[in-house]
Amino acid sequence: MTLTAQDPQAANETHIQDLLAQMTLAEKIGQMTLVEKNSIAAPDITQLFIGGLLSGGGGYPTPNTAKAWRDMVRDYQDRALATRLGIPMIYGVDAVHGHNNVYGPTIFPHNIALGATRNADLVRQIGRATALEMVATGVYWNYAPALSIPNDIRWGRTYEGYGQDPALVTELALAYFEGLQGVDGDYDLSRPDTVLATPKHYVGDGGTSWGTSRMVMLGREYDIDQGVTELDEDALRATHLAPYLPLLPAGALSVMAFFSSWGGYKMHANRYLLTDVLKGEFGFQGFVVSDWQAIYQVAEDYYDAVVACINAGVDMNMVPFDYKQFIATLTKAVEQGDVTEARIDDAVARILRAKLALNLFERPFPEDDSTAKVGAAEHRALARQAVSESLVLLKNEGGLLPLDATAEGILVGGAAAVSVGLQSGGWTIEWQGKDGDITPGTHFLDALQAAVSPQTLVAYNRFGRFDELVEGQSAAGPAEIGIVVIAEQPYAEGMGDRADLTLGDEDRELIARVAAQSERTLLILFSGRPLIITEELEMVDACVAAWLPGTEGQGITDVLFGDKPFTGKLSFNWPRSMAQIPNGQGGEPLFAIGFGLTTN
Length: 600
Ligand code: GLC
Hints:
Blueprint: H1 8-22, H2 25-31, E1 33-36, H3 42-47, E2 52-54, H4 66-81, E3 90-93, H5 111-117, H6 120-135, E4 141-142, H7 166-181, E5 216-217, E6 220-221, H8 233-241, H9 244-247, E7 254-256, E8 261-262, E9 265-266, H10 271-281, E10 287-289, H11 302-312, E11 317-318, H12 323-335, H13 341-357, H14 377-390, E12 392-396, E13 409-413, H15 420-424, H16 444-451, E14 457-461, E15 479-487, H17 505-516, E16 518-526, H18 534-537, E17 542-545, H19 554-560
Parallel strand pairs: 1-2, 1-11, 2-3, 3-4, 7-10, 13-14, 13-15, 15-16, 16-17
Antiparallel strand pairs: 5-6, 8-9, 12-17
C-alpha cells in the first residue's frame, strides 16, 4: 500500500507501526483472538489483551434487550481499554437480516428475498438501517454480507445468497456493504454511525458438492454445507471470487474464510487463496477472520492446525471457546519459529488497520444512550417495502390477485399464518430460528385482518378445518377465497441441508382441504429456497413465493390486495423436480431466473 502524507490513512499506518513497536508478543496474539461471549472470563479481556468478542447465533444477554446488549458490550470494551496500550476490542454479530439476535429489532427479508427485488438502493438502505440498529447497541462489526452463490439449493444456507447470478450477487452485496460502512456518497468508515462489514464466506461456499461435507453438528451430519468446491480455478474465479473484487477497493477490511475446501486444501489452510490471491493479487489490506472453530478442522493435531492456518493467512481466530489454548499454542509456535514474528506483525497490523479505519480508538462506545433506533418505525417501514418488492407471483389463474378486500369470506389455513418465527426463518433470535411470536412483528393473519373490510369474515384454522366458523356462524357453502400459508421449519447452515425439497403429505392435505372449502385458492410459501411444488400448483389458482419476509407481514398484504404491484423476479432457478438440482441440469426449470408475474 503506497501512502502519501495527505492520505488520511497515513496517520493510521504510523499509528500501527507505533503500536507494533510497543506491543509484546502476548499483546499481539491477544489481538488475533476472537472469543464468544459465553466463553470469556471477563477479567481475561484485560489480562490477555483480547482483540475481539462475538455473539454466535442466539448469543444474546439476559434479558435480551437492546439496553442489556449495550451494557454487555460496554463492559467488555471498558475492560479492553483498561489494557496497557488501551487498544479497543471489536464486537461482532451476524446481523444478516437486521440486528437479528436482539429481541425487538427490525427483521428484514433474508437475502434470497432481496435478490428478487433487484433493487440495489433498497438493499443499501437496509444495510444502513441495520448499521444504525447495531451501533445503538455498541456493536460495530457485522459478519455480512454473504457473497454466497448457492448452486445447489439443497444447501441450508441458500437463503443467505442473493441469487445464482454472480453479477446480481455482486451488485446487491456491494450495495448492502456500502450501507453498512457509510452513508450515500460518504463511505467514510470512521463516521460514528458505521459498522465494519465482513464479506463472506471466502471462497466458494455456495459451490460445494452434495455429499462432500464431513461436518457433524449436534448429532446431525451435514450433507453439503462445509463440503468440497469441486470447480477448476477459472470457474471458481468467474463465479465465486468475482463478487469480492468490487468490495475490496470499496473499503472491505475484514473477510471471513469458510469451512469448505478447494484444490485439496481446507480453505483456512489454503495459502494460495488466502494470501497469494486475496492479499497478494487482489491487494486486500484488511484481516481474514476464521469461521467458528474452523481451525480445529484443519488437522488432527491442534498445534499443526494453528501453524497451518496462521501461516496460510488467517489473521484473527474465531476460536471461539478455548482461547487460552489458542493463545498458548500460537505463542509456542512463534517461540519455536514455526510461525514468524513477521507473520504475527502482519496479522496484527491488518487488525489494527480495520480498528483505526473504523475510528474505534476515538469511538469505542455509541455517541448517545438511545436505543430507539432498534426496531424504529422508519426501519420497519423500509422492511415492509422490501417485503412487498420481494414477493414473486408464480401463478395467478383467472386474475385471483389482487384479492378483493371486501370479499365476504376468506379462509386461512396453515401454522405459518400466525408465526413471526416461521415468517423470519433462521438467524432470528436463535441461531436456528424458532416458531412462534419470537420478537415483535406482524404475522400474516394479523396483516390480513388489518387489510380487509369490516364486513369480511376471516376464518383461521391451522389445519384448514372450518366446520365451525368463528363467531358461531355456520359454513354457508364455500368461501370466496381460501389462503394456505406453508413454511419450511426454520434452519441455519448445514442444519438445513435437505435431500428432498418436495412438500410433505401434511402440507398437500392442508392445501386440498382449504381448496375444497373455497371457490378459489391462493398458496403462499415461506421458504429459504425454491421448493418442488409442481403438483401442488395444479391444486391452487394462485401462488406467491414470499421467501422469509421477517417481522413486517403487512408488506405481503400490501401487494395481495393491490395497494402495491407484484414486481418481484426470481433470482434463483425454480426446479420442476429434484432431478433439476444442482442448478442447470435436467432441462428447463419450472420457472427460470427473472420470472415473476406482475399485477398493475
Ligand atoms: C457460523 C457461520 C458464519 C458466522 C459465524 C459466527 O458458523 O458459518 O457465517 O458468521 O459462525 O456466528
